[in-house]
């Protein structure tokens, strides 16, 4: 297993690098608006908190509704070409945000970002699963998803810096422009055979697979029916939805929380939170990926156990972060909570692609995107904004530890239930 033949080729590693770089700009484009929130409240747009939260909601609604379409296309069409088209669309939409003269125009531009990102978000994980064998996917997804904290932080820091010196319109232009080059690089990637890395991996079908039946032949409806019947997949995605509820609200509102509730100056708030996200996200994502792969030596539920335990441990840290008045104390809480939340990023996505048939992976990712956003960060940013308008942002943040606890509990339950199901098989056979 450690021979030269088992090592990924340079072309495959280059593809991972390209996809990871695109993912970085994916999240930079997505969260640059968070750094601009306080400026968008001023003239000429004069947005309210609920409207600011609605910008993220508009993006996520379009993103989740178009994801099933691109997921189905990704299981049946040339994946690099679809990714290239998506990257070009979201980059153009980000630039158009800088030209907006009204809230409806800005809302429409941010919503169109969701179309482009749906093409990428659904297809890239499935493509990576076909580049690398199962035993490496936790680490591979750790590399890929490490772009989330780095890109998100870059959105905060770059957006805040450009906004402070050149205005919020320039921030949108700077964030969107690199996408055209990335689109070109994506179009040049190789599209590997679907399921090629799963043949002979361990002599077993994925947990959610139906032996001998292939979704491209059976059709889209059959693929979605398989996913709805797949209990490990359902529980994994349900926990992911609760996790996304908390993380989406936290990512959007945390700079404003630091500025308003903790009195951190505007420029410093984006830099402080961005720096925390970069460090904790990078470390947490890599630790989670390695732990998930390492744990496979003892249990097939390793990815879910790692995700569930780390997320439950994040609950007390989040409570400290949102309630403590002392700066050293609440910043320590923020660091600990972010670190533990990012641990689950690689493992939970590895779990999703591992419990479905290879030919259903893009569709499975698409359905998970639809579900986690419908139940997660579609309602959470505007809900936090609405509660903030009626009470305060500090009070609104106190609902987030509950969502984090629900996510961890569901993943622990899924891991325990999955382990019991596996242990019952030999007993029944004997």
| CATH C-level | Mainly Alpha
CATH topology: Growth Hormone, Chain: A
So how many helices?
A: 20
Radius of gyration from the CA trace?
Answer: 21 Å
Strand composition percent: under 5%
Poorly predicted runs are 1-5, 205-217, 422-430
Give the N-to-C terminal Cα separation: 32 Å
Tell me the CATH superfamily. Answer: MFS general substrate transporter like domains
| Element order: H for helix, E for strand | HHHHHHHHHHHHHHHHHHHH
**Helix content estimate:** over 70%
The overall pLDDT average reads 83
The major beta sheet can be summarized as:
none
Question: What is the CATH architecture term?
Answer: Up-down Bundle
Give me the count of strands: 0
- Label the structural class: mainly alpha
* General shape: globular
Give the total of domains.
Answer: 1
What does this protein look like?
With 430 residues, this protein is mostly helical. It has one domain (9-187, 216-421): Growth Hormone, Chain: A (Up-down Bundle), CATH 1.20.1250. Helices cover 78% and strands 0% of the residues. The protein has 20 helices and no strands. The longest helix has 30 residues, at 231-260.
Describe this protein with a few key phrases.
single chain; 430 residues; mainly alpha; Growth Hormone, Chain: A; globular; disordered C terminus
């Amino acid at each position: 297993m450690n021979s030269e033949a088992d090592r990924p080729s340079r072309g495959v590693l280059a593809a991972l690098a390209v996809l990871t770089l695109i993912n970085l700009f994916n999240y930079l484009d997505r969260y640059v608006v968070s750094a601009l929130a306080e400026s968008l409240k001023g003239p000429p747009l004069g947005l309210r908190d609920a409207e600011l939260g609605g910008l993220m909601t508009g993006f996520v609604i379009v993103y989740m509704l178009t994801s099933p379409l691109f997921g189905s296309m990704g299981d049946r069409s040339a994946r690099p070409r679809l990714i290239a088209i998506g990257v070009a669309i979201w980059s153009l939409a980000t630039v158009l945000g800088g030209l907006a003269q009204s809230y409806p125009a800005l809302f429409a531009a941010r919503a169109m970002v969701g179309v482009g990102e749906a093409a990428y978000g659904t297809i890239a994980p499935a493509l990576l699963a076909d580049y690398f064998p199962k035993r490496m996917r936790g680490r591979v997804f750790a590399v890929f998803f490490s772009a989330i904290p780095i890109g998100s932080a870059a959105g905060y820091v770059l957006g805040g810096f450009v906004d402070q010196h050149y205005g919020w319109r320039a921030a949108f232009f700077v964030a969107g422009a690199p996408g055209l080059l990335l689109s070109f690089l994506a179009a040049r990637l190789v599209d590997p055979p679907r399921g090629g890395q799963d043949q002979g991996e361990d002599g077993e079908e994925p947990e959610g697979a139906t032996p001998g039946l292939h979704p491209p032949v059976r059709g889209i409806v059959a693929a979605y029916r398989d996913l709805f019947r797949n209990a490990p997949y359902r529980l994994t995605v349900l926990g992911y939805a609760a996790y996304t509820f908390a993380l989406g609200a936290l990512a959007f509102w945390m700079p404003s929380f630091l500025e308003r509730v903790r009195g951190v100056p505007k420029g410093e708030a984006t830099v402080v939170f961005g720096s925390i996200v970069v460090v904790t996200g990078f470390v947490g994502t890599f630790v989670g990926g390695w732990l998930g792969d390492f744990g496979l030596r003892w249990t097939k539920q390793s990815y879910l156990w790692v995700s569930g335990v780390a997320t439950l441990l994040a609950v007390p840290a989040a409570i400290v972060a949102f309630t403590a008045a002392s700066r050293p104390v609440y910043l320590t809480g923020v660091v600990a909570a972010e670190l533990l939340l990012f641990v689950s990023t690689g493992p939970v996505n590895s779990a999703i692609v591992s419990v479905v048939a290879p030919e259903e992976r893009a569709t499975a990712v698409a359905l998970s995107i639809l579900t986690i956003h419908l139940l997660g960060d579609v309602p959470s940013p505007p809900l936090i904004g609405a509660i903030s308008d009626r009470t305060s942002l500090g009070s609104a943040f106190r609902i987030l530890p509950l969502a984090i606890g629900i996510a961890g509990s569901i993943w622990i339950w899924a891991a325990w239930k999955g382990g019991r199901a596996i242990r019952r098989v030999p007993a029944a056979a004997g």
